[in-house]
Design a protein that fits this description.
mainly beta; ten-stranded mixed beta sheet; 2 helices; disordered N terminus; single chain; Jelly Rolls; 2 domains
């Protein structure tokens, strides 16, 4: 076979492999609802489902906010929607307060479809996130525990949301994280559905059902793929930080609110 013939064959093989991978991915059906918060109540977030991370230590990213607990100024359910609000408010030598909710020791999941319908806050310096951490973080630390960022948005990039994984081999400290962004026209005016479909072989990142990042298990070591263990959920709104504050903070945008209509987790039957 000539070199040109081999090249054509390799190209065809490459694209047919991609096609088969997407076909396999599309055949996974997550139809069993195993956990949800529909926020069909009023007041503080349901304490049987959510914990608070508390404090103003920068959270590893030089963030500017102090995360409070049981404070309806920062986290409250109103008219079927969870509202996480960042405010200009001095607390513990921090100039902003906000909330970070998580399900650690209350609900963790291994594989499935995680789906969150949310409306994002606008404004330079805001950094809302819907994400997951490995349940073994206390033992292994970050990034060995793994991180799945279902949705991140930084206010100075008005047109994009991002889906990313971090592991020991692939993380932002090394500049090797596996992430992609997608244009979204109305993140501040409308609710959109941010989700992942996670199997032993891949993690697909989606917005409104459209896959924009497809991360494949290379079947090497846990350094590349620590995602065969339970992960817990996190919802938060940060202010500033290494990424969110890269272009400064517009103080006029506060209070800023991340609104969440529901959180749902589906697995196979």
């Amino acid at each position: 076979m000539t070199n040109s013939g081999r090249n054509i064959m390799y190209v065809l093989l490459f694209f047919s492999t991609l096609f088969l991978q997407k076909e396999v991915a599309s055949q996974t059906k997550f139809t069993k609802l195993v956990w949800a918060d529909e926020f069909n109540y009023k007041g503080l977030p349901d304490s049987s489902k959510w914990n608070y991370d508390i404090g103003g230590n920068g959270w590893g990213n030089n963030e500017l906010q102090y995360y409070t607990a049981n404070d309806t100024l920062n986290a409250i359910v109103v008219e079927g929607v969870l509202k996480i609000t960042a405010r200009r408010q001095v607390k513990e030598n921090r100039q902003y307060t906000s909330a970070r909710l998580q399900t650690k020791n209350k609900a963790s999941f291994k594989y499935g479809k995680i789906e969150v319908r949310a409306k994002l806050p606008a404004g330079r310096g805001t950094w809302p996130a819907i994400w997951m951490l490995g349940e073994n973080i206390g033992k292994e630390g970050w990034p060995r525990c793994g991180e799945i960022d279902i949705m991140e948005h930084v206010g100075y990039e008005k047109d994009s949301i991002f889906g990313t994984i971090h592991s020991e081999a692939y993380n932002h400290m090394k500049g090797t994280q596996k992430g992609k962004g997608i244009f979204i026209a109305t993140p501040y005016d409308q609710f959109h559905t941010y989700s992942i479909e996670w199997t032993p072989d891949k993690i697909d990142f989606m917005v409104d059902g459209v896959i924009y990042n497809h991360f494949i298990n290379e079947h090497l070591t846990t350094k590349e793929w620590p995602f065969d263990q339970p992960f817990y959920l996190i919802l938060n709104l940060a202010v500033g930080g290494n990424w969110g504050g890269k272009k400064g903070v517009d103080e006029s945008v506060f209070p800023a609110t991340l609104e969440v209509d529901y959180v749902r987790v589906f697995q196979t039957r």
